[in-house]
Amino acid sequence: MLVHIKKLVRQVMKRKCALGAFDTFNFEITLGIIQGAMQAGSPVIIQVTPKTFKYTGMAITQIIQSIANNQGQDVSIALHLDHGRTFSDVVKCVQAGFSSVMIDVSDQLFDKNVALTKKVVQYAHQRNVWVQGELGLVVKGKEGYQKLVKKPEEFLTDPDQAQEFVRKTRIDALAIAIGNVHGHYKMEHGIPRLFLSRLKEIERKVDIPLVLHGASGISSNQIKRAVDLGIRIINIDTEIRMAFKKALITSLGAQKREIDPRKILLPTIKEVSRVVEKKIKIFNQGKRI
Predict the structure, then answer these.
(1) Domains of the chain by range and CATH?
(2) I need a labelling partner for 11 at 20 to 30 A (CA). Which of 149, 182, 230, 246 fits?
């Protein structure tokens, strides 16, 4: 069932573990995420990006809400906007019933980031919606990956700036850059290490939940250490896409004469749920939330 994200975050803050936040694009992935959460016996965040809205329209919201309130009755689910880029992105999701939104202008100058994030917070808080901001730069793709490997200090979140950013914007959660990378490129060329010492410094300066984006492929040991040091929400997207594609290719190969999409797509739900269940168990650190 759908609940406000603050209910879930309170639980992980108290138990010092982390929530899994998974991106969805369609019915099958949404159902797979919810089934995985049910199998893990844990709440979950389901999130949608502006790019997905361009693909599905707002219909993806109704799909999530319907599955959450029917097949997902026995698990707590929060609905979140991932990487909103404009004020308009935020407004659409608040009006659609999201309990949490992210405004990501981390690629802009600090003052511009503060200004837009603060505007979003003022709007969202009046409507009982949480806001996640981002500081530092979580790179993506080949070019970003190579720059991070060569000069990581240019992309990492500055602890003092993080403290100032939280104070000026009054956000509810902060996404940080500690060596994490978005996208598929890293899966083939090596997962960069997390700068856990930087995480430790940020956690000392900031008293709101910290979010780790680009967590696909990061070792369970590093994830567990990051959770120990204060990460409370962990985003997974790339591994969901990979699981869906792998299952679909296998299904098409095994059922070459099949034309029923339901039979072809069924294995994708199972594979996504398997990945989600595995990740959640790592994030929860064996604690019941």
Answers:
(1) 5-283 (3.20.20.70)
(2) 182
CB of 185 within 8 A of CB of 142?
yes
Supply φ then ψ for residue 285, to 5 degrees.
60, 30
Q: Tell me the per-residue pLDDT of 170-211, one tens digit each, with 9 for 90 and over.
A: 999 999 999 888 888 766 767 778 999 999 999 999 999 999
The catalytic residue positions are 82
Predicted confidence (pLDDT) per residue in 249-268, tens digit = 999 999 889 999 999 999 99
Residue 59, sorted as left (phi over 0), alpha (psi -120 to 50) or beta, turns out to be alpha
Report whether 25 contacts 55 (CB < 8 A): yes
Q: Is 286 left (phi over 0), alpha (psi -120 to 50) or beta?
A: left
pLDDT tops 90 at residue 283: yes
Residue 178, SS3 per DSSP: coil
pLDDT at residue 185 in the model: 72
- Cα atoms in the Cβ-side hemisphere of radius 13 Å centred on 246: 11
Task: Tell me phi and psi for residue 29, to 5 degrees.
Answer: -65, -40
Q: Distance between CA atoms of 132 and 174, rounded to whole angstroms?
A: 6
Structure tokens at 40: 């893990």
Per-residue pLDDT reduced to its tens digit, 156-169:
999 999 999 999 99
Q: What are phi and psi for residue 99, nearest 5 degrees?
A: -95, -5
User: How many Å apart are CA 95 and CA 97, to the nearest integer?
Assistant: 6
Query: Cα dist. 106→87, 121, 189, 215 in Å?
Result: 14, 15, 25, 18
pTM over 0.85: yes
